From TrEMBL:
One of its GO terms (biological process) is pectin catabolic process. One of its GO terms (molecular function) is pectinesterase activity. It holds the Pfam family PMEI. Residues 45-205 form the Pectinesterase inhibitor domain. PANTHER family: PECTINESTERASE (PTHR31707). SMART domains: PMEI (SM00856). It is found in: Secreted, Cell wall. It comes from the Eukaryota. This is Pectinesterase. It catalyses: [(1->4)-alpha-D-galacturonosyl methyl ester](n) + n H2O = [(1->4)-alpha-D-galacturonosyl](n) + n methanol + n H(+).
Length: 503
């Protein structure tokens, strides 16, 4: 009955319905066209941004496009969204690796080699997550891409650290052990290979961010490069200290070591607060609001122990009486103790802004121990001054992040400094020549003329002093919220030259 009633009504008002339908149809078409145009515009914007971001990557450009395609259409005009998508892709891969290892360890309880490898890999993968969190915090705390770009030294460091951690995870699994090899292959195929590739892609994007911003028609904010080893004037006060450097730290650096007032003292004879260095490290305040330097004085003596400064123990200053008098020594090794190289270190620093002075770090395993690390360091903005680092093979493991060593004696025979660092490696073939930036500066002597030099794409010939500043230590040590190349080393009180050593 209800259906028939509707038919009768429709007959009675047929003319009105036709008119209304005509109007309604016109409205619907207009709305659909508007939505369609908006969707097309967002898609075009997305394709343009993706093309610009992926243009200079040395990795698979198809993978780059796949990763950036995850950007939501409503965010297609925000350059930050593309970087965020890449970082989230890396984070998903790291999380996948951690989940896989939780499963693997349940089936490998009886194989100590597998257990050690998994424990080591979990440690570095958790560090990778911490680096990615720092990266994401920059994206969240800055409203525009220019603000993000000004912190590119930090972003590049954290991405480089993720790549280092990924490689450390892969390296810790031994191919000779069938169980370890299978786990490594699974981790690589299902997670870590992609983590490495997407990290490199993201690093390429961040490295070329200034050019990307320019090509997008946005204003690029660039900071001048510091010269002559000096900090930019606006970053320091009239006493030569950066604005974030506390007055207590200024007093600390102004005093001779013998006048320092340590928080705790380590002494083997019991005359201090602790007899072992690790106990002193463990005394680091648990309060999250702790500020300033935590000073540990280690009296003269030979301390036979393995020590670790955890990542939360930032701003530790540890000093001894002299590197020939205050000695930390152990003999853990790859062969003698059947340990993974990463786990043999006598001293491990995971904390940021760590400073050591007048101490000796030693692995006494000798030739029979093969790989035996004296010092493994992953602490960002860490510095070692007037220290001895002694071993036989794999003495100093520079694992990740920004580190500085001054007046240090580093001794060993095979690979005694290894790990991750900025530098060059030979590439066979010609495929890499287009990515090289080859310059000459300040040439003198019979071969100073650039006539007859190579004709590679990246060769630029002679450059100016201002251009050459890009290749000085100052650029490699950049970091911090204001990009002061020298600030963290000035804060630590370590002497250095960040520019040219001669005019």
């Amino acid at each position: 009955m209800e259906k028939k009633g509707k038919i009768i009504v429709s007959v009675v008002v047929s003319l009105s319905l036709i008119l209304v339908a005509g109007v309604a149809t016109g409205v619907i078409v207009a709305v659909n066209n508007k939505k369609s145009n908006g969707a097309d515009e967002m898609q075009n914007t997305k394709e343009r941004f993706t093309s610009l971001m992926c243009r200079n990557t040395q990795e698979d450009q198809n993978l780059c496009r796949e990763v950036l395609s995850q950007v939501d259409g409503s965010s297609s005009s925000d350059p930050k969204a593309y970087i965020d998508a890449a970082v989230n892709d890396i984070r998903d891969g790291v999380t996948t690796a951690l989940k896989m290892m939780m499963t693997d360890v349940e089936f490998s309880k009886d194989d100590n080699g597998i257990k050690m490898a998994i424990d080591g890999c979990k440690e570095v993968m958790e560090s990778a997550l911490s680096s990615l969190d720092l990266f994401s915090n920059v994206l969240r705390s800055n409203h525009d891409i220019n603000s993000v770009q000004t912190q590119s030294p930090d972003l590049k460091n954290w991405l480089s650290a993720v790549i280092s951690y990924q490689q450390s995870c892969v390296d810790i699994f031994e191919d000779q052990n069938e169980g370890e090899r299978k786990i490594k292959e699974q981790l690589q195929s299902q997670s870590l290979d992609r983590v490495e590739k997407v990290s490199i892609i993201t690093l390429d994007i961040v490295t070329g961010l200034a050019k990307i911003i320019e090509d997008l028609g946005l204003h690029v904010q660039m900071k001048p490069i510091a010269s002559s080893g000096r900090v930019l004037r606006e970053e320091v006060d009239n006493e030569g200290f950066p604005d974030w450097f506390s007055s207590s730290d200024r007093k600390l650096l102004a005093k001779d070591v013998k006048f320092h007032v340590p928080n705790v003292v380590v002494a083997k004879d019991g005359s201090g607060n602790f007899r072992t260095i690790q106990d002193a490290i463990n005394s680091y305040p648990k309060a999250k609001n702790f500020q300033g330097r935590y000073i540990i004085y280690v009296k003269a003596g030979i301390y036979k122990e393995n020590c670790t400064v955890p990542s939360h123990a930032i701003n530790v200053f540890m000093y001894g009486d002299d590197p020939t008098k205050t000695i930390i020594t152990a003999s853990m090794s790859n062969v003698t103790h059947n340990l993974k190289t990463m786990l043999t270190a006598t001293f491990v620093n995971k904390a940021g802004m760590f400073l050591a002075k007048d101490m000796r770090f030693e692995n006494a395993a000798g030739a029979k121990g093969h790989q035996a690390v004296a010092l493994r360091n992953v602490g960002d903005f860490s510095a070692f001054y007037n220290c001895h680092i002694h071993g036989y093979q794999d003495t100093l493991y520079v694992q990740a992040n920004r580190q500085f060593y001054r007046n240090c004696e580093i001794a060993g025979t095979v690979d005694f400094i290894f790990g991750t660092s900025p530098g060059w490696a030979p590439h066979d073939g010609n495929e890499m020549k287009g990515f090289l930036d080859i310059c000459e500066y300040g040439n003198t002597g019979p071969a100073a003329s650039v006539h007859g030099r190579i004709k590679w794409k990246g060769y630029r010939g002679m450059i100016t002093k201002n251009e050459a500043m890009r290749f000085t230590v100052a650029e490699f040590l950049k970091g911090g919220p204001n990009n002061g190349a020298d600030r963290w080393l000035n804060a630590l009180g370590v002497p250095f030259d960040s520019g040219f050593l001669r005019p």
